[in-house]
Amino acid sequence: MGTGKVNLAVIIKNPSNKEEFLLTKQTPPPKFNDPEYDSYQDSDLWDLPSAQLSLLDSPLSSSQVQIEAGDNSLLEFLSGFDLDSAINQVLGQVGFQKATKVKWNVSKVVEEPEFGPGVPVKTVYIVGESEPNAAMSQDCCKWRNTKDCADLLLEAKPHNDRIGPLVVVGLLNDSMEITKLNIPPTLRSQEYPPGVKLVPMRSRTAKPFHTTNLVVFVPGTSYDGLGGDNFIASGDALIIDPGCNSAMHKELEHIVTALPRKLVVFVTHHHHDHVDGLSVVQKCNPDATLLAHENTFRRISKDDWSLGYVPVLGSEEICIGGQRLKLISAPGHTDGHTALVHVATNSLIVGDHCVGQGSALLDITSGGNMSDYFQTTYKFMELSPHVLIPMHGRVNMWPKHMLCGYLKNRRNREASILKAIQEGAKTLFDIVAYTYAEVDRSLWIHAASNVRLHVDHLALQNKLPQDFSLENFNGSLAEFAGSEFSMQRFHSTCKLNFFSRWILEYLRSTLSIQHHHLQIVKFVGAGTVAAIAFFVFQWRGMIINDHFKKFVLYEDLHFSSLNAFPPLFSSSVSPQSPCMQRCNSSNTTYGLKEWISPKDLWHSMTDEELMWRASMVPCIVIYPFNRTPKVAFMFLTRGRLPLAPLWDVFFRGHEGSSQSTSIPHRSSHMSPPSHRCSTNVEYLAR
């Protein structure tokens, strides 16, 4: 089973009423020591007592804990952990003395889905009956049964007590009548609250996450008893943000096919890792209804969704299987970002406004706005949700504390930015360098986007000094992109600095050989090695370039038009250029020189004829003219030639005896490059 992080959840039965089990009040996160933030308090959370299992350095010769399991492999798995300490820790939480006479049974072992970051956590559930008349802490412990817990979960009120996920996963999901979702065996899911299924699926998202949570509602019972036509949309099932990558499309197809035909699809915003699976949904169920904000839908590709949609503003309601859900306008991350509240469980699906760890950057290219973000955060806190469900990472059981943490962090950052400006920082680069001085330089380009949004927010609040020019600040964006972006991006990802210096040193040592024949051999060898290295770099470059395009919106780079390898040529070749005139000329008289080095390379041969022509070789070894051996270098690139200045150094001193040939794709529009190694360039039609 592996030995990652393992938790122990203990189900302690009431000896006088075996339907009841013991719940403990969970300790909330520490306060902020700030009157404003500490005024927002989450309601009490009750869950099964639990503790983390620690690995044993060596197996115990004997254990005070009596534990049984129907599967011997479970006992073998648990034998590597310190069960005695974990159970004693749990009993201490509830005020019991060490219980040596209690017999424990392993109920189940549950491994959480791949929420990330980090390895999924396993939870071992054990069941035991407390000793008669055992004293317990009345302030932090309660006896509850499954019906009490289900009522609190499914008839949630904003400030009522809450029931945690250990109760739901360990007890309620086995006892309640809920619709089982047909999940492929390659995926794991989590149902919390009841009726809300989370299926993390691999997506084109940003680190430290690798998955996007597909949220699925398939109500088995109508808890609200709602119906009628008072909703903007209704259906028997709902899925939110089908954003898995193409490798997971078969699994998504499996899920969608098993859902009821009357399906509603809702997307929180347009980023790839939230809509990449829409085409699969449309293919499996063309009758599905898509809900999206207008600003979100207009950014969704027609390849992802070509049918109509129901536009929403963020104040409407929908009905799924008799249950009511409210749409919440939540701009900030993007201008079309929308959240959703499941009324019965008071669960808030927040999209990318919050994530399981850290915070998502705001997308300035799609209307991301810091002022909107603050307003949305306060709006969420006023809702007093029982749980936050992000699209990346685990659910959060302390919603108000998490939201206050976001506010505090962003305000502290804004205060640091204001201090930088007050101390003389005028440009974006100056502010980033001051504010993020202790942060890895490779992250500065990402931080620059939020700095820009914070400065706009400060300007909106009239907090900027009078001598600070927004016009000059905005004009500094290109300067930041041109200098810091290219260097930091290359150094942190491509390692170009090391790579280029290594090739230069290798070629320099090769060309320094004096013996003529050895020089030719070494020259060819050096060229071969350099070409192989070049192709490796080009391959890595394409991956890096593609990775950058994937995350340019999610990581909130406001220089979205920049690529790791921008196009080298800005204009197409003129039809009247000397190159084209030479290609169109005709010469019917051929001597030996013209036959060996033809000037007109246009032909009408088929591929088979051309291969036959190229296979011709002279039978006489001695050449009838003075011949200088040559080495040909062919570069297969997409767009510009990376490392062009490096090849300039390689060919330096041979300007009159070198020539390059470019064969672009027919759809390419390229003009001659300006670097030295390609001063004589032939352009041939493909």
TrEMBL record:
<feature type="region of interest" description="Disordered">
    <location>
        <begin position="658"/>
        <end position="686"/>
    </location>
</feature>
<dbReference type="InterPro" id="IPR036866">
    <property type="entry name" value="RibonucZ/Hydroxyglut_hydro"/>
</dbReference>
<protein>
    <submittedName>
        <fullName>Hydroxyacylglutathione hydrolase</fullName>
    </submittedName>
</protein>
<feature type="domain" description="Metallo-beta-lactamase">
    <location>
        <begin position="227"/>
        <end position="392"/>
    </location>
</feature>
<feature type="compositionally biased region" description="Low complexity">
    <location>
        <begin position="662"/>
        <end position="678"/>
    </location>
</feature>
<keyword id="KW-0378">Hydrolase</keyword>
<dbReference type="InterPro" id="IPR001279">
    <property type="entry name" value="Metallo-B-lactamas"/>
</dbReference>
<dbReference type="InterPro" id="IPR050662">
    <property type="entry name" value="Sec-metab_biosynth-thioest"/>
</dbReference>
<dbReference type="GO" id="GO:0009536">
    <property type="term" value="C:plastid"/>
</dbReference>
<dbReference type="InterPro" id="IPR036388">
    <property type="entry name" value="WH-like_DNA-bd_sf"/>
</dbReference>
<dbReference type="Pfam" id="PF00753">
    <property type="entry name" value="Lactamase_B"/>
</dbReference>
<dbReference type="GO" id="GO:0016787">
    <property type="term" value="F:hydrolase activity"/>
</dbReference>
